[in-house]
Amino acid sequence: MNTFSVTKWDEHVASGEATGQRVAVVHAAMTYAGEFEGESTGDYLLYYPGAGDDGGSTTSPGFERFDGTLAGRRGTFLVRHEWSFDPVGIRSAFEVVAGSGTGELAGLTGTGNVHGVLGEPTVSYAFDHRIG
């Protein structure tokens, strides 16, 4: 099973009010297990249309940098996310940023998705990729 856990979540309101409509900036760190083994850091721009932690029907962009092994090959790569979230869970569709693979992951392409339930210790991901 492909999973990750969040090891750091640093969120700050960039504009708007903390108790109402706002845009927040997040810097996060994750640890991955499964097909990808390693660490990542991500930077996200989240939109909240009102009070609370519900993103409504909007999506929020972000980039995540991976460092580890994928299919037994070592290197780094970057993905671009489109996150959606509500009080129950999180979802993302992501794509590898063209040309971002390094080391044995040079030439990596691929897409995937993330699905998680808030409060659970791990989040599931699927990643369809090709190296070279």
From TrEMBL:
It holds the Pfam family DUF3224. InterPro entries: DUF3224, SO1590-like_sf. It comes from the Bacteria. This is DUF3224 domain-containing protein. It comes from Amycolatopsis ultiminotia.
